[in-house]
Design brief:
InterPro entries: Quino_amine_DH_bsu. With 389 residues, the protein is mainly β. It contains 2 helices and 30 strands. It is globular, with a radius of gyration of 20 Å.
């Protein structure tokens, strides 16, 4: 996962030098209203700094100013607050208050070098933080940051390595709570592989944990390795599923050996047929959003580092359209996709000369609503709804 971010930040984009971003001026507090339907945007210079921004879909603008964050971060929303997960080299959870123009009200260290990847909320007083560089799944009180303990998941790390020395880390990534169960994706990569590219070591796991007793209930084997991103929970084919992109080998060791998969919650099993195969997409499946049984979207990175936004039919696995194409000569990628409750697909485009967020109307033939990406000043890296899921 860390390799993946280095790949995106250093190989696909131009090298950028930027001074630390300073706290925005006081007047910006009055220019950033907390309006239902707004989209949170985590932006970055892929060097030293980032900023949290807010996009208004109706006005097709982002508000000025806003809060400095880490250059490698993702965001979540819960219980009226924004939680920024500052990853490696800041290793913290930062809490923003929407009623005070999203200014920082607290920041809690998750431990130096632990590289937090995601946060899931069991309730107002309990949350889980996945730590990519640790064997421990951290438990905190999201109202004050107090530690509530940790679960040792080191026993679920890979047991073999091409180097002969397994790294002992399960590489936990995206998480999702459904009912009383926390589902945690374990990539199980081989950090000690001589290539240095963290290839999958074999089977990746989906762990189910009881959030009442904090015990592991079951371990499910992904049909394809290397789950990336946050699982999407939705009704698919008439019942709830978790949808996850599993690109397997990617980047410099790219191969057409991954897929978008769906975990059926009623049977606690992966569907036999993947929703979309890399052999059809023609590249690594990096990000996915599913609209319905017959419409899905994927951000695809091919072996030559060309980037495409593709539409496909999850029921047949057939590609229906290519909505965006960015050649490798452009310093850009499609780093995040978000399907809003307004049925708009929001796409983060990190092109250095014109970074921003594009909007597609999924209910009107995927028509492009923004001839030019909506500027968010820096390069958008993550998108999320500013509302309860």
């Amino acid at each position: 996962m860390r390799f993946r971010r280095i790949l995106i930040g250093l190989l696909l984009f131009a090298s950028i030098d930027c001074e630390d971003i300073k706290r925005p001026p006081l007047y910006s507090l009055f220019l950033t209203p907390n309006i239902s339907g707004n989209i949170g945007v985590v932006t970055t210079d892929f060097s030293s700094s980032g900023r949290f921004k807010v996009l208004n879909p109706d006005l097709k603008v982002s508000y000025p100013g806003l809060t400095p964050i880490h250059s490698d971060a993702v965001g979540r929303y819960y219980n009226g607050k924004v939680y920024i997960i500052n990853r490696l080299n800041r290793d913290s959870v930062q809490v923003l208050d929407p009623d005070l123009a999203f200014q920082t009200e607290a920041e809690w260290s998750m431990g130096a070098g632990t590289n937090p990847g995601d946060i899931e909320f069991a309730g107002p007083n309990k949350a889980y933080v996945s730590l990519y560089n640790s064997r421990f799944l951290k438990i905190i009180n999201p109202s004050n940051g107090a530690s509530l303990g940790a679960l040792d998941l080191g026993g679920y790390s890979e047991t073999t390595s091409t180097s002969g020395i397994p790294d002992g880390l399960p590489e936990m990534s995206g998480m999702k709570i459904v009912g009383n169960s926390l589902f945690v994706c374990l990539e199980r990569l081989d950090r000690n592989d001589p290539s240095g590219y963290f290839p999958p070591s074999g089977v990746s796991y989906l762990l189910e944990i009881d959030i009442v007793s904090d015990t592991v209930l079951a371990v499910y084997h992904f049909p394809f390795a290397n789950p990336v991103g946050k699982p999407q929970l939705l009704n698919l084919f008439g019942e709830p599923h978790l949808v996850i992109a599993t690109p397997n080998r990617l980047g410099y060791i790219s191969a057409l050996d991954g897929a978008i998969v769906a975990f059926q919650l009623s049977t606690r099993s992966f569907r036999a047929n993947p929703l979309y195969l890399e052999t059809t997409a023609g590249g690594d499946l990096m990000v996915v959003q599913i609209a319905n049984d017959h419409l899905g979207y994927a951000s695809v990175l091919d072996a030559s580092f060309n980037k495409t936004l593709q539409a496909f039919d999850p029921s047949t696995g057939v590609k229906s359209a290519t909505l965006l194409y960015i050649p490798s000569s452009f310093d850009a990628s499609l780093s995040a996709l978000l399907l809003g409750s307004d049925r708009i697909l929001y796409v983060a485009n990190t092109e250095f000369t014109r970074p921003g967020v594009s909007m597609f109307d999924t209910s009107n033939g995927n028509s492009l609503l923004t001839p030019l990406p909506i500027s968010v000043d820096l390069q958008p890296f993550d998108l999320f709804k500013l509302q309860e899921n």
